[in-house]
Amino acid sequence: MAWPCAGFGTAGSIDLSAGIDVQDRPKDAWANYAVTSPPVVAGDVLVVGSSIGDNRGHALEQGVVRGYDARSGRELWRWDPVPRAPAAA
């Protein structure tokens, strides 16, 4: 199968679960992590949000917003809307 954007990510796609920190279960058990809406392209950046179910434990994946290079699929940045360090609040 030929992908329309073979140079994007890996064979035309990116793994949105890559890099998610899952500390209390196997790496393939993503629990309640989900991308709940389509990404948006802002300039040359593909912006992807996520949703998590955070009522099951304390060491869970974080619902970060990520930015990817729209041409290559390379992750450019992550933004966590919830301050994790007391000094960041």
TrEMBL record:
It comes from the Bacteria. SUPFAM superfamilies: Quinoprotein alcohol dehydrogenase-like. Residues 4-86 form the Pyrrolo-quinoline quinone repeat domain. Pfam families: PQQ. InterPro entries: PQQ_b-propeller_rpt (IPR018391), PQQ_rpt_dom (IPR002372), Quinoprotein_ADH-like_sf (IPR011047). This is Pyrrolo-quinoline quinone repeat domain-containing protein. It comes from Xanthomonas campestris pv. translucens.
